[in-house]
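Researcher: Quick test of sequence recovery. Tokens follow.
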């Protein structure tokens, strides 16, 4: 199991490595900039160098993921939002490459009222443009499964398939499977049978070879509610069973799994300990 957590990069990107090490994370996920702002402080060359140095000096942190800022909507029907989103995403892809971070996780965006087909088309165009602009780069975009709030895309596996099929650069696309979001979107995981059924479905529609990262979150929201609310591992409506199965599933032993559970400053220790305790020797 390559287990880790979303960690803070406050005070400089390199602090994320230290924060990951404190928690004994083999994988970390970070924001490269303030996730709630279009215009904010960007890591400069010295930040990037310090980050790379801290990372290469670390014996613990092996895998690094970037989480896209929250404002991005690469499927937006609004030209100004779409332009900002593409610009921001391009800059994050370039920064990720500079930092040696392999993956950038993004949500599929929302179509607002333009309809799903139109939203997926705009998203495909955005990604094709971004891959063209970063030709030669090595960062891989991970499409995150979503709960499907409002007009958000990505709550069904078919949406992921659609984007992969429409991509001019499918080798730079993968999926980040968020347990809370998938559950809220109506794929059950609560029993061993549900677990296998959901992953069989994912395999048939998307392919397990595309599953390159996990977000391990229990759900405060109800099954099928399309509401995105995370809960501590084993304390929500999903329960401990699927986490135990994931921790011991040989298909996923080299796939990074990061928690995004609440109260990261105080509760990450506990949630990671719970997950580590599930691994059978
Ligand atoms: Zn997530
Ligand atoms: Zn979420």
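Model:
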């Amino acid at each position: 199991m390559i287990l880790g957590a979303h960690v803070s990069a406050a005070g400089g990107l390199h602090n994320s490595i230290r924060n990951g090490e404190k928690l004994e994370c083999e994988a970390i996920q970070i924001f490269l900039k303030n996730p709630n702002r279009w215009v904010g402080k960007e890591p400069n060359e010295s930040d990037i160098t310090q980050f790379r140095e801290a990372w290469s000096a670390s014996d613990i942190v092996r895998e690094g993921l970037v989480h896209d800022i929250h404002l991005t909507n690469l499927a937006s029907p609004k030209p100004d939002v779409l332009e900002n989103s593409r610009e921001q995403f391009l800059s994050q892809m370039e920064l990720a490459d500079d930092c040696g971070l392999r993956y950038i996780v993004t949500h599929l965006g929302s179509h607002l009222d333009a309809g799903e087909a139109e939203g997926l088309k705009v998203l495909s165009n955005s990604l094709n443009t971004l891959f063209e602009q970063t030709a030669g780069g090595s960062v891989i975009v991970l499409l995150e499964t979503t709960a499907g709030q409002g007009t958000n895309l990505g709550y069904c596996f078919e949406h992921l398939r659609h984007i992969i099929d429409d991509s001019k650069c499918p080798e730079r696309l993968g999926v980040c499977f968020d347990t809370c979001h998938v559950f809220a979107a109506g794929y059950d995981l609560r029993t061993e049978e549900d677990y296998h059924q959901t992953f069989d479905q994912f395999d048939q529609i998307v392919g397990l070879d595309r599953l390159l990262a996990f977000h391990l979150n229990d759900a405060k929201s109800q099954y099928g509610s399309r509401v995105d609310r995370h809960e501590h591992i084993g304390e929500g409506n999903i329960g401990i069973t699927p986490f135990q199965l994931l921790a011991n599933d040989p298909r996923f032993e080299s796939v990074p799994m990061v928690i995004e559970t609440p109260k990261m400053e105080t509760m990450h220790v506990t949630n990671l300990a719970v997950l580590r305790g599930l691994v059978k020797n």
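Residues 79-99 form the longest helix (21 residues).
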